[in-house]
Amino acid sequence: MSKSYQYHQLDVFTNKPLLGNALAVVHEANDLSEKTMSGFARWTNLSETTFLLSPTNSEADYRVRIFTPGDELPFAGHPTLGSCYAWLLAGGRPHSKEVIVQECGVGLVKIRRDGTKLAFAAPPAKRTGDLGEDTLLKITSCLGISRKEIISHQWVDNGPGWCAIMLGSARQVLDLKPDFQKMGGLALGVIGPHPAGSKTDFEVRGFVPSLGVPEDPVTGSLNAGIAQWLIASGQAGDHYVATQGTVLRRNGSVFVDKVGNDIWIGGEVVACIEGRVTL
Fold it and tell me: Over the stretch 114-144, which tens digit does the pLDDT of each residue have?
């Protein structure tokens, strides 16, 4: 029997509709089956669709399940910020004035309000270290670049399986024309620096064709993993801004701030659609 649920569609990592990464959020979804959640995510065909549920951990304010058109994810960044925004918009009241606590597949994730932005604390990496030469060979083949163009590289996996490479410039990143068929199961991030004096510090692109997302408009989990890598290795300062989505005619802005032991990944969120969905 069908039922009606409160529904939001948001744009994340932007303060202007249509320029960030869209997210669908279904509220009070405790009684929905995994099959229905997965089917609705395929139907929306957005990078991610999330479902808000009652927490199972007493420290959490809410629980979220995150689906791409192809699979469920234990964690993802833009769904974390967008789901939190939607939960607050629907009247959610956090236990603490300092942070909102989200429960998801990787455990508890802290979110803070910073002016008009929301920011999540990057979760611990599940896998780090240099990429092997076999992986690098696959990357160069699917991106159509030479091995010497890769300045540095690392596994930056915090749940979705990300690996990342750095190129010498943002221009090189923007000029890439990936072969998604060759990419196979890679979840690949590419980053390059903008020239000194630019409005943002880095350009990022993220590719996950195996999950039905050939190129993601703006990717919080990828930027979180990259930030941990670059800050720890001295390739970036404790505070920087990355742009993502340019090739897709988006203009996502990701704000990175290291505060104490935490690296916060922040962005603005704007609501685009509000209503009810029957599932």
Answer: 888 999 999 999 999 999 999 999 999 999 9
Sign of torsion over alpha carbons 57, 61, 63, 67: negative
Helix axes 77-89, 220-233, angle to 10 degrees: 120
Please check whether residues 100 and 200 belong to one and the same domain: no
**Do both 137 and 256 map to the same domain?**
yes
Which CATH number do you get for residue 210? 3.10.310.10
Tell me the per-residue pLDDT of 91-111, one tens digit each, with 9 for 90 and over: 999 999 899 999 999 999 999
Inform me whether the pLDDT recorded for 230 exceeds 90.
yes
* Residue 128 forms part of a structural domain: no
Show the domain range for 185: 133-260
**Total tally of structural domains belonging to the chain:** 2
- Is residue 138 domain-shared with residue 40, that is, in the same domain? no
pLDDT at residue 115, rounded to an integer: 85
Q: pLDDT at position 95, please? A: 96
Whether 205 maps to a domain, the answer reads yes
Q: Do 73 and 153 sit in the same domain of this protein?
A: no
Judgement on whether residues 90 and 201 belong to the same structural domain of the protein: no
Instruction: Count CB neighbours of 112 within 10 A.
Output: 18
What are the residue numbers of the active site? 48
